[in-house]
Amino acid sequence: MKKLVKWFMNFSRWNVYPSRKRALFAMMTALSLIATAMLSLPLNAQNVPLRSPASELRGVWLTNIDSDVLFERDRLKKSLQRLSELNFNTVYPTVWNWGYTLYPSKVAAKVIGRSLDPTPGLQKRDMLKEVVEEGHKKNLKVIPWFEFGFMAPADSQLAKRHPQWLTSFRNGKRIVKEGTHDRVWLNPFRPDVQKFIQDLIVEIVKNYNIDGIQFDDHFGLPSDLGYDAYTVALYAKEHKGKKPPSNPRDPEWVRWRANKITDFMKRVFTAIKATKKGCIVSVAPNPQRFSYEYFLADWQRWERMGIVEDLVIQVYRNDLNVFISELEYPEVKAAQSHIPVSIGILTGLKNRSVSMEQIQTQVQKVRDRNFAGVAFFFYETLWNMSQEKPIDRQTAFQKIFPTPTAYPNLLAGWKP
Q1: CB 280 within 8 A of CB 410
Q2: Structural domains in the chain (count)
Q3: What is the DSSP letter of 313?
Q4: Cβ 93 vs Cβ 129: under 8 Å
Q5: Which of 198, 238, 281, 300 could connect to 331 by a Cys-Cys bridge, CB 3.0–4.6 Å?
């Protein structure tokens, strides 16, 4: 407007013909009305950028699988520094993996017999404390990721010391194959198992200045499991002596187990809030249909109940049409109207490179639909583990996140 006024002031000094003066007067009158209307708008509506810089989740998961970012203090510090320089604002360091904690834990020492994962790079350190301290210096939110949930390696000390805690298939077998790895699952319906998991979570919330804590599908249970003696007896007790259906996908059997997990999730939420009210409870599941049917994790219900305050849906798809379809399900849109909902994007795996072009396209599709932001799985594949040059990948991320922005915090007044 200042430029327009200056232009017309200069224009009025020119020697113009009367007809042009009349036209000029009409134009200035119209502009005066436009200016009046603009000045009546709220200040922040007068200069609306293509994307509001107010807040956007820009997260990345830090894991100890196919990655050494957590195993050396200086490496961790430099990695957090680089993320901050590229305008990321959230990190999810894993804290429960391979049957061990990645921080010194009194709860784990008592139950497992070891207070810390035995990996050499974690010894005589408190990795989580380092992430919190260094991350906060770099204005990064730190939300520990409870990665393995109820899952553990079959040969872990946890499984060996507490075999009665394990659940099983209908044929009595316990081993669940995950790639080449043999896994077992703790029974999420047992009070002693629930106490152990909840004690670990509360220990983290109580002892560290974290911004939140995150769970995923592993906080549920593969739906083929649940045929151990304890669960069968519990089901029979609540069904007049009737045993669970032989079909693990039986709708009532799925719902009964999912409801038990939901009840536990509610207790965990309450325990977290009783320990630290400002600790965000985040969940990073697969899309609802998969999470519920295959992992008994009914995050749609959790969100409706108000026991999820931040949702990051893992949409690891190469097909762009499939990727987009996952963003537009009714339960996703319903959650968007209630809490910050972001999308987890795959940046690669050890043996699977994802192009920067695909990443950029998926980020744009997420932004087009007004999600709260994006989180990338996982740190090493951002630029260290890729077929493209690290400097080219980092330059591309700089273009995706050209300026800093705030984490969309529901507890700090975030609105949909």
Answers
A1: yes
A2: 1
A3: E
A4: no
A5: 300
CATH for 299: 3.20.20.80
Residues 297, 307: Cα–Cα separation, whole Å: 13
List per-block mean pLDDT (blocks of 10 residues) for the chain, which spans 416 residues. Answer: 40 39 44 40 33 82 96 98 98 98 98 98 98 98 98 98 98 95 98 98 98 97 98 98 98 98 98 98 98 98 98 98 98 98 97 96 98 98 96 98 96 91
pTM reported for the whole predicted model: 0.87
Q: Decide if 206 contacts 188 (C-beta within 8 A).
A: no
Q: What tokens appear for 369 in the block?
A: 């639909």
* Structural domain contains residue 266: yes
Burial class of residue 230 (count of CB atoms within 10 Å of its CB; 0-12, 13-18, 19+): middle
Strands (E), 55-145: 57-62, 90-93, 96-97, 100-101, 141-142
Cα–Cα distance, 124 to 286 (Å, whole number): 35
CA distance 370 to 43: 22
Domain span including residue 368: 57-408
234-253 in b/e form (b: 16+ CB < 10 A) is bbeeeeeeeebeeebeeeeb
- Please state, in angstroms and as integers, the Cα–Cα distance from residue 246 to each residue in 167, 225, 243, 253, 280, following that order: 15, 11, 9, 9, 39
Q: Using DSSP bridges, classify how beta strands 348-349 and 90-93 pair: parallel, antiparallel or unpaired.
A: unpaired
Residue 30 domain-assigned (yes or no): no
- DSSP-derived letter for residue 411 is G
Answer yes or no: is 21 within a domain.
no
Instruction: Return the exposure string of 164-202: e unless at least 16 CB atoms fall within 10 Å of the residue's CB, then b.
Output: ebbbbbeeeebebeeeeeebbbbbbbbeebbebbbbbbb
Domain contains 131: yes
